[in-house]
Amino acid sequence: MNSDTTRMLVTDSTTSVDALNTLLRGELSAVETYGQVLEKFGGDAPTELIKCQRSHDARTSKLRNRIAELGGVPASGSGTWGAFAKLFEGGAALFGRKSALAALEEGEDHGLADYREKVKDLDLESRHLVEVELLPGACPISRNARVIPS
Questions:
Q1: Which of 9, 25, 31, 34 has the least CB density, counted as fewest CB within 10 Å?
Q2: How many Å separate Cα 18 from the centre of its chain?
Q3: What is the pLDDT of residues 85-121, one digit of tens each?
Q4: H/E/C letters for each residue in the chain?
């Protein structure tokens, strides 16, 4: 392997790790935000919301594993987006369930946009993980928001 090929592989790996960590921080933020909304619902939490939180949590594990496989260090927190999401969700929680669900829907839209943007920065195996395993399991919150009582 020549030095140009080695440099390209390292760059690809670094770029993939950075993109995967962005996605991981978004998933961590989603897990936190769903936790806040589930608290708002208390014992009346719709099973759809619980499933969505578990789905996001499962995606964090898969992303962490892939980052480690690439030799990277998985993000340990949700970062700036997580802080914003907490602030946004905290405000929505003051106004009731309907606002909390709207915040979740907004977060899901943002997350899907992140996946669509970052997939182009991924190596082939990571891209396969995202396209075949992670995105098909995305939470259809917009449909849930219409069927969950506010």
A1: 9
A2: 14
A3: 555 555 555 567 777 777 788 888 888 889 999 999 9
A4: CCHHHHHHHHHHHHHHHHHHHHHHHHHHHHHHHHHHHHHHHHHHCCHHHHHHHHHHHHHHHHHHHHHHHCCCCCCCCCHHHHHHHHHHHHHHHHHCHHHHHHHHHHHHHHHHHHHHHHHHHCCHHHHHHHHHHHHHHCCCHHHHHHHCCC
Look at residue 12 in the predicted model and tell me its pLDDT: 75
Structure tokens at 143: 């449909």
Q: Which residue has the tokens 């977060």?
A: 107
Dihedral of CA atoms 5, 74, 63, 16 in degrees, nearest 10, equals -20
Residues 6+ apart with CB under 8 A from 120: none
Task: Report, as ranges of residue numbers, the positions in the chain whose pLDDT lies below 70.
Answer: 1-11, 79-95, 141-150
